[in-house]
Amino acid sequence: MSFEPPVAIRAAYKxxxxxxxxxxxxxxxxxxxxxxxxxxxxxxxGRLSRSPNxxxxxxxxxxxxxxxxxxxxxxxxxxxxxxWFLTMGLDGCDATAHHLREQPPQLVxxxxxxxxxxxxxxxxxxxxxxxxxxxxxxxxxxxxxxxLIDPDKDLHAQHQxxxxxxxxxxxxxxAPADADLVVCHGDYCLPNILLDEAGHVTGYVDLGELGIxxxxxxxxxxxxxxxxxxxPGWEDLFISTYGxxxxxxxxxxxxxxxxxxx
Length: 262
Prior knowledge:
This protein is of the alpha+beta class. The protein has 2 domains: 7-88, 2-Layer Sandwich (Phosphorylase Kinase, domain 1), CATH 3.30.200; 93-261, Aminoglycoside 3'-phosphotransferase, Chain: A, domain 2. It has helices at 7-12, 54-65, 104-121, 133-145, 151-154, 164-174, 216-230, 235-242, 248-261; strands at 17-24, 28-34, 40-47, 73-78, 82-88, 93-94, 182-184, 193-195, 201-204, 211-213. The strands form 3 sheets. Strands 1-2-3-5-4 form a 5-stranded antiparallel β-sheet, covered by helices on one side. A 3-stranded antiparallel β-sheet has the order 6-8-9, with helices on one face. It has a two-stranded antiparallel ribbon with strand order 7-10. Strand 1 and strand 2 (28-34) form a beta hairpin. Helix 3 runs antiparallel to helix 7, helix 3 packs parallel to helix 8 and helix 6 (164-174) packs antiparallel against helix 9. The mean pLDDT is 94.
């Protein structure tokens, strides 16, 4: 089921062409709005009960906009059940549709450099959002208590043997004792990264989980994402191009956290 745009937004853009850009059934819908002059806007709607919700993402995007190439927020609101925000479109093509998919080494390296640039540009000392390990594990416990974790739907194949309880036990055992903190994207996957024709990262979207965290929160997920989209064998190139060496324990922790946290 697609979430329908607010009446006022639909009326204000009645002469624009509307299409569904992406959809997560009963969770969130993103509409693409295009006019005859080539302008593109995006309207994202999501359930207020979801974490992160659209208002969370709107707040993070407005903070990040001062420091990073992320969409400009034009408007936002809620009806008490569904939150929404409207943004300008960004230049570039998302990495799942970019022509460099036919040249995986170049695409993987570009994505890794884009992540390093993200971590370098966003200042930790002024970021009001955080997802450090203590916060993250408490968040997972709340989701479990509310019955929001479905092992059949939420866990990737390597975690499918786990129940919710054993997954949380493993998460707590794997949790690193220390971390070098940066501002993380929170969902650094190919659909959320935009590149120009030459393969340079031009923008970042889907920022609902942006916050201060261990850089491995992004590195572990980003290096996992390239295997989902490009096939096995690209993780080491992603990690080395980012500028570090594999850390199996942190990778295991943050990939399990990714499955349990949203």
